[in-house]
From TrEMBL:
InterPro entries (alphabetical): FMC1_homologue
Highest taxon in the source lineage: Eukaryota
Name assigned to this protein: Protein FMC1 homolog
Function, in words: Plays a role in the assembly/stability of the mitochondrial membrane ATP synthase (F(1)F(0) ATP synthase or Complex V).
Family: Belongs to the FMC1 family.
Originating gene: LOC109463868
Gene Ontology cellular-component terms listed: mitochondrion
Organism: Branchiostoma belcheri (Amphioxus)
């Protein structure tokens, strides 16, 4: 099925907008996201630069690229923080802890005779 190019771009814009809102929810865990300044600014910019039949936004591609870049930044920052929290050195680990973290089992020592 062929999708008209203007419909494809608006679906892409919607996908990026939903991704940005999802990432804002991760950042602002307390209270509804709709009450944040970032959400209000984001929605204002999307509405302001909306492409319609009567008006064409000249910088549409630039704004779309900026939104995609910002979404990538938010996702990458969240994932980096999760990795940092999981693997950051909280002191030296024992050999057994390191082996379990890597998915290995240490051989058992034979009992002394």
């Amino acid at each position: 099925m062929l999708v008209p190019s203007n419909m494809a771009t608006s679906m892409e814009r919607l996908r990026v907008l939903r991704g940005l809102i999802r990432e804002l929810r991760h950042v602002h865990k307390k209270g509804p996201v709709k009450e944040t300044i970032a959400y209000n600014y984001l929605m204002e910019q999307y509405r302001k630069h909306q492409v319609t039949d009567q008006r064409i936004c000249r910088a549409h591609q630039e704004l779309q690229r900026n939104a995609e870049t910002y979404l990538c930044l938010l996702k990458s920052t969240r994932l980096q923080q999760a990795l940092h929290a999981e693997y950051y050195g909280k002191g030296e680990k024992t050999t057994e802890e390191t082996a379990k973290m890597l998915g290995f089992d240490l051989p058992q020592n034979p009992p002394d005779k």
